[in-house]
Amino acid sequence: MSRQVGYLGPPGSFGEQAALGYAPAGALVPFTSHGAVVAAIGSGLIEEGLAAVENSLAGTVPETVDAIIQTEGVFIRGELILPIEHCLIAAPGTSLAEVDLVLSHPSALAQCRTYLETHLPGARLEAALSTAAAVETAVQTRAAAAIGTRRAASLRGGAILAEAVQDVAQNSTRFVVLAASDAPPTGDDKTSFAFTVDHDRPGTLIGVLSELSNRQINLTRIESRPSREELGVYVFMIDCQGHREDTVVAEALGAVQKQAHYFRLFGSYPRYADAAT
Amino acid sequence: MSRQVGYLGPPGSFGEQAALGYAPAGALVPFTSHGAVVAAIGSGLIEEGLAAVENSLAGTVPETVDAIIQTEGVFIRGELILPIEHCLIAAPGTSLAEVDLVLSHPSALAQCRTYLETHLPGARLEAALSTAAAVETAVQTRAAAAIGTRRAASLRGGAILAEAVQDVAQNSTRFVVLAASDAPPTGDDKTSFAFTVDHDRPGTLIGVLSELSNRQINLTRIESRPSREELGVYVFMIDCQGHREDTVVAEALGAVQKQAHYFRLFGSYPRYADAAT
């Protein structure tokens, strides 16, 4: 039996594209939210899953980061960067001139605002729960179009009215591969961890970050998430270069842990090869 | 003529609640997005505006932070913290048992997931562009309810089926007051600024943050936003204690500016009195 790999569905979503890229031979299992993918790994229902963590335009995907922080037993085993191309999709035979309604997830509508204002200034915008759901509705609705993936168009029998309709051509999303354990060292790895510090004193965050910089470990990402207790209290999530088994990284992590109130290591994994391009 | 104060509408939104709290006698002007509020101040169309920057559960409001960073001539003159209470609203006479459709902005639906799963497990969820728009639709639709504000219910003639339906009772949103200039010192102030640093070398971020901690200036918030160029390159937005005219703060800002590639000061403003409670 091929391994089960969870993703944010339905089929035709960017999540499915990422899962196909990571595990072309896997049994792909759609979930209704990134949080549900993370929970299914935490409970052992599936072996691996992909969840989006950040987009080059929109920034962090809060739901994923929060679910990873809140779910015990979930580790990061890999990462993958997917270029995002939004298409304008409608029932076959529909012309751009007839479109008076555009459906999509609010984030996708926002990412294509300039295109929509320029090419469809009179069209009404309507929110959908996902780009894939929007495509499904649009191909069944007269004079409607949806913002979605090329694959969703193909799965739902939609025609592509325009390609690459997002405002900024360079648009990519980073996914992490989640599992019950992380990955062995490869020589070009990253490590992710989260912590909280005493927030009422100056310099507590810097004390922690210095444990990395003093050892010449590059910080590739720092993200602050609300503690869900009160405004102004944050959980910091850090990605840095190196593997947790590397001597300097292991030392730095030990020193961070000593200074932190809360500390959790999400593991180490190979850096995505095309990440820097 | 009373001063014009912009907010994210329509009337009945949390944005209007915040604007009413800040300027009860102001001429409140609704806009269709936080970005539009910021742009209207940048262009001088309105004198002041409120925009949500972070929520205690959801975290940052990326649209606002990005708009502030990208719009010239916009300063932060104040802040305000609004407790968020979601209500379940329907046409008068509707009972909870009949509700088979729940409408709201996807963020509001997500914030009330536990309530919805417990009390309305069979109801279909449908996305709307705002909570206020959801309430307007729900009161006109049989067997439908919306998640929205108490004020939206009153404005649209809706009945409140349940109060405080959000999953976590402690839910508040911080708004900033934006204008063409910031505020004079009061003795209990905060200062906000943004910067980028060389991201390929270890310790560049820490070098900047140390300029604050070395002077015992407390960092109240650090937020990383994508540069919109490539993944892994961020603009950092910082809130710290003190006013830009305070000697140590002025020195720290000067030192930060020297180390940064990009630097922008959004100004100083009185700390919200109830912020710590």
3D architecture notes:
Two copies of one chain form a homodimer. Chain A has 277 residues and is α/β, with parallel strands linked by helices. Chain A folds into three domains: 4-83 and 171-179, D-Maltodextrin-Binding Protein, domain 2 (3-Layer(aba) Sandwich); 87-162, 3-Layer(aba) Sandwich (D-Maltodextrin-Binding Protein, domain 2), CATH 3.40.190; 189-270, Alpha-Beta Plaits, CATH 3.30.70. Chain A is 28% helix and 33% strand. In chain A, strands 1, 2, 3, 4, 5 and 11 form a six-stranded mixed β-sheet that branches. A five-stranded mixed β-sheet of chain A has the order 8-7-9-6-10. In chain A, strand 1 (4-8), helix 1 and strand 2 form a beta-alpha-beta unit. In chain A, helix 2 (34-42) runs parallel beside helix 3 (62-70) and helix 8 runs antiparallel to helix 9 (247-259). Chains A and B meet through strand 4, strand 8, helix 8 and strand 13 of A and strand 4, strand 8, helix 8 and strand 13 of B.
Quaternary assembly = homodimer
Classified in CATH, the superfamily of the largest domain in chain A is Periplasmic binding protein-like II
Main sheet summary of chain A: 6 strands, mixed
Distance between the termini of chain A: 36 Å
Number of domains of chain A: 3
Residues in helices of chain A, as a percent range? 25-40%
Mean pLDDT of chain A: 91
